[in-house]
Amino acid sequence: MASYDDSERSDRGIKEEEKKERKHNGDEEEGDSFIDKVKDFIHDIGEKIEGAIGFGKPTADVAAIHIPCINLEKAEIVVDVLIKNPNPVPIPLIDINYLIESDGRKLVSGLIPDAGTIQAHGEETVKVPLHLIYDDIKSTYNDIEPGSIIPYRIKVDLIVDVPVLGRLTLPLEKTGEIPIPYKPDVDVDKIKFQKFSFEETVAVLHLKLENMNDFDLGLNALDYEIWLCEVSIGGAELSKSANLEKKGITFVDVPITFRPKDFGSALWDMIRGRGTGYTFKGHIDVDTPFGAMKLPIVKEGGTTRLKKSKEDGGDDDDDDED
């Protein structure tokens, strides 16, 4: 029994000595070093492949902001976003998140899914359409007045999926101003005869236009129809140039032709110079700092006076009061 134990201790001692000798000779170090070298090799190969293929982060910038349509009901805003893809493969534009705010208050927000694909080593201008509904804004924020100009901030997040890099968000931001348009107030200040007869009368409407907005309106054209004593005397579409200054009053002359005999008994009140009831409806085409607009001009239940020229026996004094 003692002989067996001595033999076992001897074998263990030999093995431990061999282990120490191998460690002394660097066998284990070589094994660990080999594994590290394999890892470094794989990492280097990955970096070289990535560098050779050229994967990189796309870039995006706001190229322009357009307002193709603006009126009393809404403003349509289009944000042109230029996206550049430096990668050798197309990348999908997964989602577009957008927000428009004014003084920290949200006006509108939304998401556009599956917005397209940016071609390999290419660039593309993506149009992001936004809509502002003025009734929604005014009902939410009572202090936003019609005719005013408000600041805005547009925030756009582009979400793309790039091989190797994964899903990325490209944030964009742009500021500016946008109006809350208000229709001008219109009055027929007077109707002045150029030629008077019962069969045909040529006259000039002296329109008083009050611009209620905080910005000028450049008048280009107008269309209208007018009723005197509830009888339509016609209308026209005219090219007319004038500058309607902000918060100001501008007078515009508009020619018209009508037949007084069509008015019946109301004609005598008109001839005597008494107040004549009228209704005026039309539109004006104007230029603004924010783009072209077509605004309504409406007056119902107004009162004006017909005036004859001196040639037809009238006063013809423009300074007379109605």
Task: Describe it.
The protein has 322 residues and is α+β, with helices and mostly antiparallel strands. The protein has helices at residues 2-25, 27-53, 134-140, 266-271; strands at residues 59-70, 74-85, 91-102, 105-118, 122-133, 149-162, 166-179, 185-195, 201-210, 217-228, 231-244, 249-258, 276-288, 291-304, 306-307. The protein is built from four helices and 15 strands.
Provide a concise account of the structure shown.
By secondary structure, the protein is an alpha+beta fold.
Low-confidence stretches: 1-5
Classify the oligomer.
single chain
- End-to-end Cα distance, whole Å, is 141 Å
Q: Strand arrangement, largest sheet? A: 4-3-6-7
pLDDT averaged residue by residue: 81
- The total of helices stands at 4
Task: Give a quick set of tags describing it.
rod-shaped; four-stranded antiparallel beta sheet; 322 residues; four-stranded mixed beta sheet; 4 helices; alpha+beta
What is the strand and helix layout of this fold?
Elements: H1 2-25, H2 27-53, E1 59-70, E2 74-85, E3 91-102, E4 105-118, E5 122-133, H3 134-140, E6 149-162, E7 166-179, E8 185-195, E9 201-210, E10 217-228, E11 231-244, E12 249-258, H4 266-271, E13 276-288, E14 291-304, E15 306-307
